[in-house]
Amino acid sequence: MTGWRCGFFAAPAPFCEILTEPAHTISICCPAPTQAAALAAYTGPQDCVKEMRDIYKERCNIMATALTEMGFSFIPPRAGFYIFTDVTSLGMTPEEFCMQLLMQAKVLIFPGSLFLDPTGRYVRISLLSPTERIIAAAERMKNFVKQYK
Question: In sequence order, what are the residues at sequence separation of 6 or more whose Cβ sits closer than 8 angstroms to the Cβ of residue 71?
């Protein structure tokens, strides 16, 4: 349900009392189809969840291996479908790295600053693309990085 903004919170009763009104204000416009889909996702068969976890784990391993080969340090994700990696060892800012990578290698990733990276050192690599595209992007990234090492 990526992008379908629907959620809930669970907390001790005193927190729930404090957060009920802000939560109501934030979630009052959650569309009924999104709520129905969320309910189905939580209460329906969970086989697809394991399947998707396995797919994302494979994609993550592919990209993590490539990043290690490129000599980058990164934060292994504990959840989610993206990896943050520090690219400053190439003497570029994350913004410069992303722009050059896009122009030269045709790989689109984003500076971590767009996702609240307080250090200004990281880029965010999504693992949403099909596995074959992750493999191709990793190879193009490796070739790109070789030019700057």
Answer: 89, 145, 149
